[in-house]
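Q: What would this chain look like folded?
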Amino acid sequence: MTVNTPALCFRSKKILAPMVRVGTLPMRLLALDFGADIVYCEELIDIKMVQCKRVVNEVLETVDFVAPNERVVFRTCVRERDCVVFQMGSADAERALAVAKLVENDVAGIDINMGCPKEYSTKAGMGAALLSDPDKIECILSTLVKGICKPVTCKIRILPSLEDTISLVKRIEKTGVAAIAVHGRKKEERPQHPVHCEVIKAISEAVSVPVIANGGSHDFIKEYTDIEAFQQAAGASSVMIARAAMWNPSIFRREGLCPLKEVMQEYIKYAVRYDNHYTNTKYCLCQMLREQLETTEGKKLHAAQSTQEICEVFEMGGFYEETTAILEAKKASLKAKTQDEDEQMEDTDVIKMAVRFDKREYPPQITPKMYLLEWCRKAKHPQPVYETVQRPLDKLFCSVVTVAEQKYRSTLWDKSKKLAEQAAAIVCLRTLGLPEGKLNEGENHLINKRKRENQEFLNNKEHEDDLLVEASHKRAHFTEGASDSSSSEVPR
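A: My prediction, written as structure tokens:
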């Protein structure tokens, strides 16, 4: 069992709430600039995250969690490592643990969303749907607390009755969580409904773990001094801010709000610096503009179709060109460095060719790796050993195969580990003058071997079926005789 040793303190903190499409890296960094103590990322679904691979992005100096379609699902950096909490949507303890283990070295804590009332979340048993399943809540949180070294929190909404709410949070407390964030509304209530500060206060008095009050943007928080007023009204340890921070992240600034245009320009700088997708940047800026969307500037923002166009709307075209030039130069420099390293790692004892594996050139289910393995068995060599590496810069793969103490590799890098291994096998086979199974090589002994194996399997199957039929007839005959014998003894 892993001992949970929380590093984060959740008392007397001002926290950026998790917000879908808003809580990406630029917004989190901007909130920290203005004084936020802790920042939560947007809710990310466990099923999407378990498919991601962790990639160090040397150009942006970030850690990216990249989906199979190459989309960056979660991006973080050293600046926020000690204060970013990763929020996930999950309804499965083991899957939640797998995601937590994937990201725990790059974040300060893990949170489970138990308050989102949106159908896309509740339909899958996540978010507010968990509130009606305390057993599952306990299972997920206990599994995480025992399984990782970072603090675990959860964010809930209040239940229809105070008694049920208190009962739930006491059960949550027993799992060992580091804090409980409470949105002071029921799952069917919306921002225009009053936040129930008295319920948050009752929760705070009922448990010993820090309670983080959330939901005060509409009723309370218009400027920095209002944050403390909301905290006192809710009797909470800390305050989590969503909409007020989305409208103007300088709400965290002790000295007061900054002019909105200045805030938006600072946000854009982070968006460009960290290659944020322009649609996400545009969405966040539109949330800040709100009623100003109908102004000339707002209409230009709405029409923008790239990060460069967004920059031009806010008179930041020069910044965009300068920053992208710096990033491109860095990328070129890293690429040159990578090529130098490739040349240096090209040991003289490695045989190389520029080849790629194209499965269209091979019969179905036949590959060079299969041919190489078959040859090694016949020649009584140990089976081939593949060593594959991935380049951080472009995420391409290269594989070296060792056969009979000789190494082989392709000089071309591939987009997957499997393709790189097949290319290495081709280099080995061609060097040794062996067939590799291509369609144009004539008779394919592996295909013939497979046909023989399949025929033997079918023959054995037919023989087994015959035996089963025969056994079935024997059982039927035996049963019939037994039935006749026993039926004569049964009284009518």
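The longest strand covers residues 397-403.
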